[in-house]
Amino acid sequence: MSEQELLRLCRYYRGGGINPFYDELERHEIDKSNLPPPECMRDEYDLSNEVVMELSEKGEFCMRENQWVDMMQKPENETLFAEMVEEYRQYMGGFAIDDDTPMTLKALLHNRWVHWGGTDATFRDHYRKYIKTAIHG
């Protein structure tokens, strides 16, 4: 598939390596350059916690879609995607098998969720947020 065809399947990522959600968070980050460690290393924003959480979640989804688009354009990743799809089917059974998200993208979302400490059970809620909060598609 071409990059444009892949981008049409994304809900958050629109190409160019741009993540508008992380960019928005960065615009609202409070300057702490005058503080010593560890105070200067905390993420703090002039936004409500709810808005920060929403932008963070959408930013993560956008980042994963960007990763998926990049990986899908490299034929050498075909085996890796086949393994991730098999893993998804093994652990998630028939969950969301027939929705409009490509199986390779769904498998990547699941793989990264579990890799970073999520569980198969919590992935269901995570994936529902992906679908529910979609801004495109």
Can you offer a commentary on this structure?
The longest helix has 24 residues. The protein is mainly α and 137 residues long. The chain has one domain. Helix 4 crosses helix 5 and helix 5 crosses helix 6. The mean pLDDT is 92. The two termini are 18 Å apart.
> Counting H and I runs of at least 4 residues, what is the number of helices?
6
| Number of strand elements | 0
The radius of gyration is 17 Å
The quaternary structure here is single chain
Largest sheet: none
What's the number of domains?
A: 1
Q: What is the overall pLDDT average?
A: 92
**How much helicity do the residues have?**
55-70%
SSE series: HHHHHH
Sheet-strand content, in percent, reads under 5%
In terms of per-residue confidence, which ranges show pLDDT below 50 for 5 or more consecutive residues?
A: none
Shape summary: globular
Structural class: mainly alpha
Q: Give the distance, in angstroms, between the N- and C-terminal Cα atoms.
A: 18 Å
Question: In a nutshell, what does this entry contain?
Answer:
The protein is an all-alpha fold. It has six helices and no strands.
